[in-house]
Amino acid sequence: MKRETLSFAVALMICVSFCPAQEQKFIRTEADRHFGVSQVKQVQLDRGLGSVMALHPKVVQWMEDCFSGVYIGERVYWLDKPPVMSKLGEYEPGNENYPTVIRISNQPNITDYDRFAVLVFELHNSKRIREAWNVFNRAVAGEFGASDYATKCLEIEHAVLLECKQFLIENAFPREGNNCVRGNLDVEDDFKVYLSKKLDSEVFKAYVRFYEESITRHQKGIR
After folding, report:
1. Most CB atoms closer than 10 Å: which of 13, 35, 66, 167?
2. In this structure, are residues 113 and 178 in contact, taking their beta carbons and an 8 Å threshold?
3. Residues 171-204 pLDDT 10s
4. Which residues are CB-neighbours of 211 under 8 A, at least 6 positions away?
5. In whole angstroms, what is the distance from residue 69 CA to residue 140 CA?
């Protein structure tokens, strides 16, 4: 959502701690489908989203597909714990030892629709991790510096926000009284305008720090 969050940055920082496996074609099984259904039901129970989900059966079905692995080629697990480095939600890519997980806030001051919208954002977010990997690898190869790296990461994040914006519009998520929904619906369509408001943000600074502290270390390792 449109917020001061490190969610996408966190996902990338975790992701670079392992070497991604060779991408393989994913064929969803009936067991995968049932898994997706079970994860969405568990989110509903853990975050009290039954009444909101009942109003959006198409969104629920899309979420079931996401959790079952249709969009990223592996199952996504719901983790009933609050986000670690973001107030509202975060996506953590899996590796050879741990599965891919999503967490969203259980804070009582967040509306059900906002919680639902955050889950939509993180599921969209999970589909972009290979793009983030590409940017990371290009940075390690020395194609650009810290500021350009942060800009390219924000460009991916902006694309996710625009996908979510269209998704929320198509599925009639109400703006009134829902700060996260309203923030995403108000996100700037023009990336240059969006970027101009982010250059002094904690998110931009986090990407720069990640470049300086991690990517430079990887660069030294390949020289």
Report:
1. 66
2. yes
3. 999 999 999 999 999 999 999 999 999 999 988 9
4. 139, 145, 146, 149, 150
5. 29
Residue 116, phi then psi, degrees to nearest 5: -65, -40
Alpha carbon distance 11, 127 (integer Å): 11
What is d(CA 115, CA 205) in angstroms, rounded to the nearest whole number?
26
* Cβ-Cβ contacts under 8 Å for 181 (sequence gap 6 or more): 1, 113, 114, 117, 168, 173, 174, 175
Beta bridge partners of 77: 101
Specify the amino acid at residue 137. N
One-letter identity of residue 43: V
Q: For residue 90, list its beta bridge partners.
A: 103
189: burial class by Cβ within 10 Å (0-12, 13-18, 19+)? exposed
User: Which stretches of 74-201 are DSSP H helices?
Assistant: 112-126, 129-140, 146-170, 179-185, 191-196
Angle at the Cα of 165 (from 162 to 169), degrees rounded to 5? 145
Determine the residue type at 186. D
Instruction: Give yes or no for a contact between 90 and 84, defined as CB atoms under 8 angstroms apart.
Output: yes
Chain-centroid distance of CA 116 in Å reads 13
pTM score: 0.84
Q: Contact at 8 Å (CB) between 4 and 200?
A: no
Please write the tens of the pLDDT for every residue from 79-124: 999 998 788 999 888 777 888 899 999 999 999 999 999 999 999 9
Burial of 123 (0-12, 13-18, 19+ CB in 10 A): buried
